[in-house]
Design brief:
seven-stranded mixed beta sheet, 18 helices, three-stranded mixed beta sheet, alpha/beta
């Protein structure tokens, strides 16, 4: 063995290879060593270029979401306003001046109701066009304790609809912008500014009582979020924890102020954001009981629409990466600056009337419980007829469909209209196709009979249309593609595919 090693070591090829290996290691070491030295020098130069922290060069930590911290006040006027606000918030402000400034509101509400408003605590989540105008109206009208929650910063493109932001505020947190500008109007208002995004897991802390949970609980929460998932999380949280909340639906692509209403979320219509929010809430078991501000304005030719992303943006990578945060919209939503203000003032108006118990009415839910009962009864009867037609005894047959399922299918999936004619009256549900293996009744261990009817198998028609569909398709054996034209078949398929996207929320 030793002689073999001796021969290898004396080999000219092995000696060359060893020399090359040692040279390579030496060169690599020199390169990496040189790079390390250059990095160290660059870091030292960068550190040396940072000025020391003093009155001229202030620095604060970023938020948990990488957003900017409040910027130092820049002008003498802003310094004066801030100093006055600090005094006023400590109680060093003439109460007569406050009463004089708010005298019109007090006269309208009466002194007793006005005191309720002065002592109230409102949380506003989302400080874009809607939220900023809502906050401004609440503060100017007398609400004393306001918590602001928003992760975002003022942008140049938001100045067309923001209530108080100026060019000087671009790049600063929206929560601090609102506070700074409104302190010049209502210096006595107490602010709690949280520069962060709403997350359900943080709900207990974000919606806690005033003064870190030690004080008054919120009288109302304002939802002015434009992200559907966050909006649904907030509304579900408030619903489950008995926290009063009012939600703003979409002001984008709207232009008719006479079409803006306040009503129960179950009654909102012609609003894509409302429909998507309502649909997800229903899947979570929340059908009604949440007041919303929405528009009944219908889209049409020549009207603004959600702008598509340019093709080059898709080629750059995942579209979701273009958003400020995961799951937040990246596409541009056209907004007429006046409409968010109208939505915001409608929300603020509703909150003030609710807090003060001022007489008011807003649109209730649709109240279509009897219709849903009738549709469910009709579907039960249809399943029993199909069982008899297949030679089976339907006595005691149960179907796995509830009244809530009926309401969800009729209102959300099929928009309250027949897929055949578009008629909104005398509606009913039916299977779209006859079962592949024929209609069968299944029996449980306790003798209970049931059918394996799935919600995705059902479509909405009028009662007369269901009778013909039953004869031609369900009993006659014809496929729907033979009975109906291609537009109807494609509409049904679109509705079914759309519903599959929502099934993950069930």
């Amino acid at each position: 063995m030793s002689s073999w090693f001796e021969r290898q070591l004396s080999s000219h090829q092995v000696q060359l290879a060893a020399t090359a290996l040692v040279s390579g290691i030496t060169v690599a070491g020199l390169i990496y060593g040189g790079q390390a030295i250059r990095r160290k020098v660059a870091v030292e130069e960068l550190k040396a270029s940072i000025p020391p922290l003093d009155a001229e060069h202030q620095a604060q930590r970023l938020t948990d979401f990488g957003a900017a911290s409040p910027l130092p006040l820049a002008t003498k006027e802003e310094d004066r306003v801030a100093a006055l606000a600090r005094r006023a918030q400590r109680g060093d402000y003439d109460e007569e001046l406050i009463n004089e400034q708010l005298t019109r509101t007090a006269s309208f509400l009466t002194p007793q109701r006005f005191e309720k408003l002065r002592g109230s605590f409102v949380i506003v989540i989302g400080l874009g066009g809607v939220g900023s105008h809502c906050t401004s109206a609440l503060a100017r009208s007398g609400v004393t304790h306001i918590r602001l929650i928003d992760f975002d910063q003022v942008t140049l493109s938001s100045l067309n609809r923001h209530a108080v932001a100026t060019l000087a505020d671009v790049g600063t947190p929206k929560v601090q912008c609102m506070r700074k500008r409104l302190e010049a109007v209502v210096p006595w208002v107490q602010w709690d500014c949280l520069n962060e995004v709403w997350r359900e897991r943080q709900g207990e802390r974000l919606l806690a009582g005033w003064d870190y949970g030690r004080g008054r609980k919120p009288d109302y929460v304002v939802d002015a979020i434009d992200n559907i998932d966050s909006k649904v999380e907030l509304l579900k949280y408030c619903h489950d924890h008995d926290i009063k909340v009012v939600s703003s639906m979409g002001a984008g692509c709207k232009s008719d102020p006479t079409r803006v209403f306040v009503g129960d979320i179950s009654a909102s219509m012609e609003d894509p954001l409302s429909r998507a929010t309502r649909r997800k809430l229903k899947l979570l078991g929340v059908n009604e009981g949440i007041p919303v501000v929405y528009s009944t304005e219908k889209p049409g030719p020549g009207k603004a629409q959600l702008l598509p992303l340019p093709e080059e943006e898709f080629r750059k990578g995942t579209v979701n990466e273009l958003s400020v945060l995961p799951d937040f919209r990246a596409r541009i939503l056209p907004v007429l600056g006046t409409m968010p203000a109208i939505f915001g003032y409608a929300v603020a108006n509703f909150v003030m009337l609710e807090i003060t118990n001022y007489p008011h009415e807003f649109g209730p839910g649709k109240g279509r419980e009897k219709m849903y009962d009738s549709i469910l009864s009709g579907l039960q009867g249809l399943e029993e007829r199909l069982a008899r037609n297949a030679g089976q005894d339907p006595l005691g047959l149960k179907i796995p469909v509830t009244k809530d399922d009926v309401g969800y299918l009729v209102e959300e999936v099929f928009r309250g209209k027949s897929v055949l004619s578009g008629l909104p009256t005398r509606l009913a549900l039916t299977r779209w196709r006859a079962p592949k293996d024929g209609f069968q009744i299944y029996q449980m261990w306790n003798g209970q009979k049931h059918s394996k009817l799935q919600l995705e198998e059902l479509v909405c028609m009028t009662k007369d249309e269901v009778a013909l569909h039953e004869k031609e398709v369900l009993k006659g054996g014809k496929p729907p593609e033979v009975v109906y034209d291609v537009d109807v078949v494609q509409l049904v398929e679109r509705r079914r595919q759309e519903e599959k996207q929502y099934q993950k929320y069930r």
